[in-house]
Structure formats: C-alpha cells, structure tokens
Design a protein that fits this description.
The protein contains ten helices and 15 strands. It is of the alpha/beta class. It has two domains: about 5-105, RNA methyltransferase domain (HRMD) like (Transcription Regulator spoIIAA, 2-Layer Sandwich), CATH 3.30.750; about 130-330, Rossmann fold (3-Layer(aba) Sandwich). A hairpin with a 2-residue loop joins strand 2 (about 45-50) and strand 3. Helix 1 (about 5-15) runs parallel beside helix 4 (about 65-80), helix 5 packs parallel to helix 6 and helix 9 (about 260-265) crosses helix 10. The longest helix has 15 residues, at about 65-80.
Length: about 325
C-alpha cells in the first residue's frame, strides 16, 4: 500500500460514523478524501450515488491509472458498494479525459432528495457541490412558507432544498441555460411543483439590482436585458464564482465583494435571511465577516444576527480556515 492509499484508508476510517449518519439521512453523496487537508494535495475522491468520482489536477499528477484503480477498489470495499469509477483530470478543456463508458442514469441522494450527478457533462465542475451541503441543509430547515431568491443558482440545488423545505416560491437565477436545465430536472426528480420553481436565464447583477430597486450600470445597461420590478424575498442566497466578466460589471469576490452583497441585501425584506458565500482560501473567516458586516452597515441595514459557518465534516480543514465560508444573517 503506497502513501496515498494509506492516507485514503485513514480518511475512510475517520469517516466511519459520518458515513453511517449520512446513510440514515438518505445521503449517498459524500467527499471521501479531501486531499489538500488529508495528505495528497490535488486529489479528491467523492461518492456521488452510484459513482466514485476521482479528480486530479493535470498540473499536479498524484496518481496514474493503476493508482486510481486501487483507490477505487479501496472505496468499494469500505462502502460495500459496486461503484462506477469516473476519473476526471482538471486543468483546461484541452486535457484528455480517461475513458468513462457507463450509461447511467446517475442519480445521487442528499438528505433524502435526488440530484443529477452525471460525472461527465459540458463543464468540468460536478453538478452538485458537496461542500455546499451545509447551506442546502440550512435553507431546507428555514424555508417553510418563504419566498426564496437563489442567485448564481448553477444547477439549483439550493432551490430544490428550499422547495422541499416548504418554500412557497423559488427564483433560481443563472446565465447558463444548461445548468438551469439540470436544475429543472432535479426539481422533477423530486416531484416538486414547476409553478413554484422558477428558473431565470439572466445575468445575476442586473437582476439583483432591479429587484433591489437600484439602477443597472455598465455597458450592459445600453443593451437589452431581462426586466424585473423591484420586490423583496424572505430568503436570499448569494453564491458567486471567484471571478467573471459580464457586460454589467465584473464579479470579483476578492476585490469587490460588496458590489454583489449590497444588491443581495437589498433583495431581502426587513427581517429576512441572507446567506452569502465566499470560496477563496486567501480570504479568512474574520475578513469575510468584517466585509459582510461593513457592507450591511453602510447600507443602513445592519444584521440583527450574523454567523459564519463552514462545510460539513467530510471537508476537513487543517488550519480551521476552509475555503468555503457561509455568512448567515438576518437583516434589519
């Protein structure tokens, strides 16, 4: 057994009670090995229902085909499950992917809900981000009777959790049509009302600014864009990428997070809940909390309650500063 296999065996042993709790909760989508914190940076191993997804970095090879096959056998024995192996090499569209010939369908489960977990699709990222389970759990617990705005919705996992938790309406906003199609499929997998589950193919920035009653700025203001009337929601979820360029301004969570958070807070009713994320490791939990508090105070809508939470225990952090930070606040 080589060093990586030994590290993986230790990670599986640490997760024994977690995996049993997950089974009891109806969850079979779990991170089994978080390499950056568990002994092999550049390697992650996830279970997505019937699939074992191994991801490595083209720029930092930590495993060859034989290594990956042995890791898969370890996982199958530990989980007592016949999992299809998908090995994805990340590092750009030009990277040649190892073969994956299984036909599916690939449906995984989290907290009793079903999700499309195909390991190969148009993008490189998994269709369900497992570290965001903490937010989906929280939203489901707080969504009863609520109107929910889910911005940068991707495949609408938050929206599915909200509607399953009793939300009366959910707006899922994302510019990617293919991601929203997966979101609608996820809603259908769970028998959720299509009337209450709205998917909006639009740029998040002008959408939030209009709903918050702010003007639309940038080059895009001179172009056509989807029009919305100002309104507020009981629960607003803001989960932006690290950086993106749009006609309405850049999404830059390191240098200008307030430009995203301000309209998100403006979309929340007084006493409403705002859940906002930051994924960049170089920004600490304390720094993120300070940004969130300062932005709300400058708007004249300080948080009556605010906490910062991280991912669940299948995403260990060696320094207590996981990349994903989730601000959960009640706005005034």
């Amino acid at each position: 057994m080589n060093e990586v296999q030994q590290s993986f065996a230790a990670a599986l042993a640490r997760r024994a009670s977690l995996l049993e709790r997950a089974r009891q909760e109806g969850t079979d989508c779990v991170r089994l090995f978080h390499g950056v914190a568990e002994g092999a940076a550049g390697l992650t191993i996830d279970r997505y229902g019937p699939v074992l997804l191994v991801q490595t970095q083209a720029s930092r090879p930590v495993a060859d085909a034989d290594d990956v096959a042995r890791l898969a056998d370890q996982a199958r024995r530990a989980l007592d499950a016949g999992l299809a192996l998908a090995w994805n090499v990340r590092g750009g569209a030009a990277v040649e992917q190892p073969p994956f010939e299984h036909g599916g369908p690939f449906v995984g489960h989290e907290l009793g809900l079903s999700y499309d977990v195909r390991p190969r699709h148009r993008g490189q990222d998994p269709l369900l981000f497992l570290d965001f389970r903490a937010a989906r759990r929280l939203v489901r617990a707080r969504a009863a009777g609520a109107s929910v705005l889910n911005v940068f919705a991707y495949t609408c996992g938050i929206g599915v959790a909200a509607l399953a938790g009793g939300a009366r309406e959910v707006w899922n906003v994302d510019f990617a049509r293919s991601a929203l199609e997966v979101g609608r499929h996820n809603a259908a997998l769970n028998g959720l009302s299509p009337e209450a589950f709205r998917t909006i193919e639009a740029d998040a920035i002008p959408t939030m600014r209009q709903l918050a009653g702010l003007g639309v700025k940038g080059r895009g203001a001179r172009r056509g864009f989807t029009r919305f009337t100002a309104r507020t929601f009981d629960l607003v979820v803001l989960d932006p990428p690290r950086w993106a360029k749009t006609p309405f301004g850049a999404v830059d969570v390191v240098n200008d997070y307030p430009s995203l958070l301000k309209p998100a807070i403006g979309c929340a009713r007084p006493g409403g809940l705002v859940i906002a994320t930051h994924h960049v490791p170089t920004v600490t939990r304390a720094q993120f909390e300070a940004i969130v508090r300062r932005t709300a105070e400058k708007m004249g809508r300080p948080f009556a309650e605010l906490s910062i939470v991280g991912p669940e225990e299948d995403f260990p952090s060696f320094d207590g500063e996981p990349p994903l930070k989730i601000a959960v606040g009640v706005v005034s």
